[in-house]
C-alpha cells in the first residue's frame, strides 16, 4: 500500500477495557502510540511463527516416538542352547583353570 494513500485510523476508546485504555492513553500523550502498536503487531506475528515452529517440532517428536518399537514383555531372546543354565555339557577334552593374582591377595578384615 502506498504511504500517500494511507488515511488516519480511529480507535473507539469507549469500547476499550479501562486497563488497555490507560496504557494506550499514556502512549498517545507521549506521541508513542504508533510505535507501540507497530511493536505489538510485530510481536504477535513473531509469536505466531514461533508457535507454528513449536507445533512442527512437536509433530516431529510425536512421529519419532510413534516409530519406536515396544518390546514385548513375553519375548525371550534366543540363547545358544549350549550356554543355557541347566544344560549338561558333554565331550569335554580339556579343562583349563587358574587363579587371578587379585584373588590370591589375602585381605585382613
Give start-end ranges of low-pLDDT stretches. Answer: none
**Elements, N to C (H/E):** HHH
Oligomerization category of the chains in this entry: single chain
Query: What overall form do the CA principal axes indicate?
Result: elongated
CA-atom Rg in angstroms: 38 Å
Please characterize this protein's 3D structure.
By secondary structure, this protein is mostly helical. Helices cover 47% and strands 0% of the residues. The longest helix is centred in the middle third of the chain and has 35 residues, at 33-67. The radius of gyration is 38 Å and the shape is elongated. The termini are far apart. The relative contact order is 0.04.
Write a brief structural summary:
The chain has helices at 18-29, 33-67, 101-104. The chain has 109 residues and is mainly α. The longest helix is centred in the middle third of the chain and has 35 residues, at 33-67.
Amino acid at each position: 500500500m502506498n504511504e500517500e494513500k494511507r488515511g488516519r485510523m480511529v480507535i473507539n476508546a469507549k469500547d476499550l477495557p479501562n486497563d488497555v485504555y490507560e496504557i494506550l492513553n499514556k502512549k498517545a500523550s507521549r506521541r508513542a502510540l504508533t510505535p507501540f502498536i507497530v511493536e505489538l503487531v510485530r510481536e504477535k506475528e513473531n509469536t505466531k511463527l514461533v508457535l507454528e515452529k513449536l507445533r512442527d517440532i512437536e509433530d516431529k517428536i510425536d512421529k519419532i516416538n510413534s516409530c519406536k518399537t515396544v518390546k514385548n514383555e513375553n519375548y525371550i531372546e534366543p540363547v545358544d542352547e549350549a550356554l543355557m543354565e541347566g544344560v549338561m555339557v558333554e565331550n569335554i577334552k580339556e579343562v583349563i583353570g587358574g587363579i587371578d593374582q587379585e584373588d590370591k591377595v589375602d585381605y585382613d578384615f
